[in-house]
């Protein structure tokens, strides 16, 4: 350790070298010490709370912003927001990262629904036998191979990849019986000696904002041989797409950096999956990528900047193919990486995958699909017509802006119920450990149960005439205690505040506004909706009754609700084993109508009504 | 300099570090000290003569092979063949490279004939104006561009290069009026802001075994903006294609090495030409490559090994396109490198270019085309039918195997004439300096004039009853003195020996056999041949009368002879400015018939007759 640099000790973790002028979050990220952060240091999520145990004098003074996020008790204990605390002195600083600020393995949804499709991958293998070159038959190798493929397989007007061209002569001289790998009946990607038709593999990846899920697929059987998931390593530069875009905009190098992080992680996944399934990465001939538009663009090295700026236009919507080697993905030298199509800036291939997984594009029934997330996508329609919109629901359902909010990690309360008579609470914790906070599904439960127990009114305010020790009115921010300090892992009461309720009102209002707008656009009444599909990691865990209680969606009978999980992975897999799925995805992209919510005529009126629990006009079209 | 390594001093050049066990030619090549060598150290050309001035004891003993190539006088002077002399001791060695063994700038043919063609390059520029993205018109950038190109240019179903895709958003945000570069009406290679239609460039390269010729072309006007040539740097690994193939076969790394040499030289040429013409390499959107099949394969990184082994089959015959970046050529990131089609292992794109330049594929007249070189290609036919064959004429016409033979460099005698009465000789030297040796054209002249002066007989032997001081009979290898030692730069008589005559008999017999075989195959009599095209660097300088005198080709009136120079460069240029030329080249490749000479039924009979001067049967079909 450099003697001249100040020493920072992260208690229970390790000592690191401090860099003067940098904030504590930055220093921790550089040292791969993970502190929770959703807003990437923009001071808006207040998740990066740390306790300074020693060395206050070496740090920048407390800011007003921190004073609004931290209460008196916390300030006395030495709490700071890591992203607002700069190292300014040369002395020793000791920092404790409390349990609620530690980033832990998240509850991740890898499986997803299976999209039904016939096995018909875009890459295929054919075994052919060539007549040996002789002085009497001196056709060039490539012309000879073309003749034989035309004769024995029936494909013509083929092209050959550069890599295959340079290897062709050597492979043929080892064996005149070869297996050719042909993509889209058009390009000979590779030539393998002998008959290797049984071994043909693909890799599908769902590039989520928060996590990556990878699948090694057998393209001969359509089966998933192995799957894995890991956090999206870009998360250290911001928890949501907006902060990734902002980071990419800040400096030209940042796009490369974000791209490299996710490509490196892809290669790690490939190494792991290939090891497990005993597949040589060179036997992987196609990579299929699904994600939201920003993740898609960054994955393919395309600047997402203009997705983040009005009028929020992506570079490309249609499905794209790029040689995997251009991206640095370590599979066969000439394999392609295919990116599923995007509909708009905030409606990406993940939504196309949702539609494919739900099947609404092929159904007569009118269906509503909601993929709930920081950015929520809504699709309404059937096989005749599809309408999509997107709505920035904000990070609250991932735990952001919520006092004890956290991601769906071990230690998060995932479900809450309140007895309307006693006002007592029950809850369930992920991993069955002592709770550290509450995650999205429990947050929705809490608001629903506070409303059903008559603890809060239609406009979200706590009622005044309540008498329960669960209600704390010590500050103007009234709180309901979900878990007492002795039950918790953080030695403090885990509460849900009046401000938290308002945050969720905004989230659900944003979603409800989108739902209402697409229904209004199509002149649809809730009773016309025959199916409601809830998608996305959050959509899988949320209690649909709680969501309906707070008015996140209109009054649709619960038996019409279907969960399709995280469809992006299923979409990537399906597009790998079926060309038809790619064509369908393209068709969906071309035909779907996109409604821009921010310029929708009745936007403000609907939004205002939607902030009420469950909605201002309980009756009447279109709610 | 490493003290433990032996020191070699190349007199007048520099001292270098010696490596024990290596031969002097190898050491010199590694140090970029150029010693003439045609056979690449196989001990067959005897061109790498050096004089050891000091340190004989540190070198391997004189070999029998050297004793056959070097005469008594030379051995006394300390002559050795550098490729057969190994460094074995630790002491100092001083080496002198005599004038005749120094590689000097060669006489090079850059211009070539112009192939007539309409201006219609495969890459074109279009200027389009896009409606700006707004909240009302949120088409993605690529979809928007496609719509506009369809509307304003009429092209549809376009694809976009990966590089252009990653830059698209940025370019459009700088200007919604852009110039798109489109290849083959299909792929958007690049997008430039504003109207840049006036600047569209291409690079054509003729990859000769001995030299490279590069041309910077203006694709808007079809004009050559600048041209340059340089020796093919691969020549240090062998002067002819056979030795390049042999070198590539020896070790896997060698193909890469040969490829890198020629690509590096390409980039040097590009730098020079772009500097001269004030063109940014990124404005070059297509590279066109012509050469013989071996040069073509090495240029594109394809192993030429199997061209060198029976049945002499190349990897690919049809025209190929490979992204220039795959080859490391520094032009626009997404430009393609196009290789003109090859007909067979030893009939390459250079021959296709010869045909295009001569126009015989479009003529009613029956024509004969001979591209004379170490490997000589012969084409006979007209627009109805074309027959090609190739014949390994050997290196003698490039100066190999000829006692004072040398390449057509400064100091080479290029023309010789002999007075049939006095037997006195006259000559002309390239660069008008004192001669160091004689090059191909003069070698043919010498044999023709020795024959016409009745100094040699039909079977090539010197007549016995001659009385002239020009005839030296000191050894059994009778010599004719072309230049006396006092006239020469090497202080020795420059002579032409009986053995030299025999070498040329073999060369011309090889060529004449090919010519006779294709004529026999088509049942053609010399009088039917309306045009004789002589092609290639050698074909341009040779005196057609001398060539006819020795019987290199049948008795065709001299007024029917046409010179088309080195057509490969012209072919590369034409294919750059015209798509039509590429289609024609492909048509030629598909339709031409190839006659394999070595398996031709009458081969030995014809060859035997062809060794006579001018031919055994002076009358009668088919000569």
Name the descriptors.
homodimer; alpha/beta; 6-stranded mixed beta sheet; 29% helix
Helices and strands in order, then pairings?
Two copies of one chain form a homodimer.
Chain A lengths: L6 E4 L3 E4 L6 H7 L18 E6 L9 H6 L2 H6 L1 E3 L11 E4 L26 E7 L11 H12 L6 E2 L1 H13 L2 E7 L3 E7 L7 E7 L3 E8 L5 E8 L9 H10 L1 H26 L6 E8 L1 H7 L20 E4 H4 L8 E4 L9 H10 L8 E5 L3 E7 L4 E7 L19 E7 L6 E5 L7 E2 L1 H13 L18 E2 L6 E5 L10 E4 H25 L8 E5 H6 L2 H6 L11 E5 L1 H11 L1 H13 L1 E2 L8 H8 L13
Helix pairs in contact in A: 6-7, 10-15, 10-16, 12-17, 15-16
Would you write up a description of this structure?
Two copies of one chain form a homodimer. With 623 residues, chain A is of the alpha/beta class. Chain A contains 17 helices and 27 strands. A six-stranded mixed beta sheet of chain A has the order 12-11-10-13-15-14, with helices on both faces. In chain A, strands 26-25-16-17-18-27 form a six-stranded mixed beta sheet. The C terminus of chain A is likely disordered.
- Mean residue pLDDT of chain A: 90
Global structural class of chain A: alpha/beta
Principal-axis shape of chain A equals globular
Strand coverage percent of chain A: 15-25%
**How many extended strands of chain A?**
27
Discrete helix count of chain A? 17
Q: Supply Rg of chain A.
A: 27 Å
Oligomer: homodimer
The biggest beta sheet of chain A is recorded as:
6 strands, mixed
- Largest interface, Cβ cutoff 8 Å: A-B, 44 and 45 residues
Helix content of chain A: 25-40%
Query: Which blocks of ≥5 consecutive residues of chain A have pLDDT under 50?
Result: 105-112, 619-623
- Measure the end-to-end span of chain A: 63 Å
As laid out across the biggest beta sheet of chain A, the strand order is 12-11-10-13-15-14
């Amino acid at each position: 350790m450099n003697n001249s640099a100040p020493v920072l000790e992260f208690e229970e973790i390790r000592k690191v070298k401090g860099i003067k002028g940098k904030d504590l979050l930055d220093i921790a990220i550089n040292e791969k010490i993970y502190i929770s952060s959703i807003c990437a240091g923009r001071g808006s999520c207040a998740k990066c709370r740390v306790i300074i145990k020693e060395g206050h004098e070496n740090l920048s003074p407390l800011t007003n912003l921190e004073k609004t996020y931290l209460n008196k008790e916390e300030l006395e204990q030495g709490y700071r927001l890591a992203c607002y605390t700069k190292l300014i002195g040369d002395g020793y600083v000791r920092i404790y990262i409390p349990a609620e600020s530690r980033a832990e393995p998240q509850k991740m949804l890898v499986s997803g629904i299976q999209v039904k499709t016939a096995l018909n991958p875009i890459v295929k293998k054919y075994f052919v036998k060539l007549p040996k070159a002789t002085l009497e038959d001196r056709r060039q190798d490539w012309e000879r191979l073309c003749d034989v493929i035309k004769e024995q397989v029936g494909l013509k007007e083929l092209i050959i990849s550069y890599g295959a061209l340079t290897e062709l002569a050597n492979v043929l001289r080892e064996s005149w019986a070869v297996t050719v790998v042909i993509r889209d009946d058009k390009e000979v990607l590779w030539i393998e000696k002998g008959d290797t038709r049984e071994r043909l593999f693909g890799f599908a990846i769902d590039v989520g904002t928060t996590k990556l899920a990878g699948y090694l697929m057998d393209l001969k059987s359509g089966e998933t041989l192995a799957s894995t998931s890991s956090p999206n390593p870009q998360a250290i530069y911001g928890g949501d797409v907006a902060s990734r875009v902002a980071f990419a905009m800040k400096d030209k190098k940042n796009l490369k950096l974000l791209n490299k992080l996710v490509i490196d992680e892809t290669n790690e996944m490939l190494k792991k999956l290939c090891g497990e399934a005993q597949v040589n990465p060179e036997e992987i001939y196609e990579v299929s990528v699904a994600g939201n538009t920003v993740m898609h663009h960054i994955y393919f090295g395309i600047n997402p900047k203009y997705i983040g700026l009005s009028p929020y236009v992506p570079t490309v919507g249609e499905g794209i193919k790029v040689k995997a080697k251009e991206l640095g993905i370590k599979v066969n030298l000439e394999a392609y990486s295919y990116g599923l199509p995007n509909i708009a800036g905030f409606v990406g291939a993940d939504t196309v995958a949702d539609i494919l997984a739900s099947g609404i594009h092929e159904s007569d029934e009118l269906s509503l699909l909601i993929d709930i997330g920081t950015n929520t996508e809504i699709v309404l329609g059937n096989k005749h017509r599809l309408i999509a919109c997107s709505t920035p629901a904000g990070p609250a359902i991932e735990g952001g802006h919520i006092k004890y909010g956290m991601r769906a990690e071990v230690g998060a309360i995932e479900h809450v119920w309140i007895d309307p008579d006693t006002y007592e609470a029950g809850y369930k914790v992920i991993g069955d450990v002592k709770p550290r906070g509450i995650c999205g599904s429990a947050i929705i439960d809490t608001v629903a149960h506070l409303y059903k127990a008559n603890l809060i009114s239609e406009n979200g305010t706590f009622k005044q005439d309540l008498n329960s020790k669960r209600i704390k009115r010590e500050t103007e921010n009234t709180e309901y205690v979900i878990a007492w300090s002795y039950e918790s892992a953080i030695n403090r009461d885990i509460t849900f505040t009046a401000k938290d309720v308002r945050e969720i009102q905004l989230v659900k209002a944003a979603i409800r506004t989108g739902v209402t707008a697409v229904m209004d656009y199509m002149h649809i009444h809730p009773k016309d909706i025959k199916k409601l599909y809830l998608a996305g990691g959050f959509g899988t865990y949320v209690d649909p009754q709680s969501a309906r209680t707070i008015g996140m969606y209109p009054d649709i009978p619960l038996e019409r609700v279907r969960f399709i999980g995280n469809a992006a992975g299923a979409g990537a897999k399906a597009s790998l084993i079926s060309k038809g799925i790619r064509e369908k995805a393209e068709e969906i992209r071309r035909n779907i109508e996109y409604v821009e919510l921010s310029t929708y005529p009745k936007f403000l009126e609907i939004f205002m009504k939607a902030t009420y629990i469950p909605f201002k006009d309980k009756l009447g079209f279109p709610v």
